[in-house]
Amino acid sequence: MSQNRITQLLGVRYPLIQAGMIWCSGYKLAAAVSNAGGLGIIGSGSMYPDVLDDHLQKCKKATDKPFAVNLPMIYPDIDKHIELVLKHKVPIVFTSAGNPKTWTAILKAEGIKVVHVVASVKFALKAQEAGVDAVVAEGFEAGGHNGADETTTLTLIPAVKKAIEIPLIAAGGIATGRGMLAAMALGAEGVQIGSRFVASDESSAHENFKKTVINTADGGTQLTLKELTPVRLIKNEFYQKVQKAYTEGASVEDLKNLLGRGRAKKGMFEGDLIEGELEIGQIASIIKEIKPAAKIVEEIMAEYHEALQQLTSSQYQFK
Asked: For residue 46, what are the CA distances in angstroms to 31, 43, 193, 231, 258?
């Protein structure tokens, strides 16, 4: 694949980025994806500062390729995470869940590339104004915490592409080479993939969660808890409790009490499939096998090139 603005910006072979998913994206996954030619990301949102420090040290030993850290702006000790990013000279930071203006200038002053995750044209423009180097536009299909507007990737990517001048990365519902090619056709210059890498050998997700992901059927997830923070969940017993609360007219306070604390950790990291939050994207329904991250990258890129070749064949040439 020839170089484009994303591969040049990130210093990677492929414009394929592994999402920085809490409880699933430790240094092992990040290093494996980076070593395979993509960009691996450590998901710092679930890590205490000392844990992130350890993962950064280990990631630097496990790969000599560029890797990134995802920094949710709402993290309570975000300033400590910023200090660690600077200390370890992390080359790239993906920011999310907050105002990119807060830290972008400080990071860029240290030579760090900054990419911000958005779910709308409005916030893509705000991110560009804040000086970020690129944006990830994430559609409604994505797992985990999501935009409230339910804008699909197919709709969001061309809308954001039309509005901004900086490079665009597509996310949400992408797990294959064909999905990657579709996103590029819509105007993206790279893709960010989460759910497919949850079901990888190197993912720090609990084995129970990984097995649940590959057994998730079509329609097995839903975006819920919009009154708090929209999140896409597998329809397990906890999800059913949430739905029951809605039918009984639960207030926002009721929903907060039902959610409590630590449910994502309980489900995805500790493997409690009953009481835990199981966050995954709609695309889980086509993920059927747990594989090494390098194999996943290899298969995605091989399918991308195969699909590209097919689309340029005579059967698709309409005049």
From this structure: 18, 7, 19, 16, 21
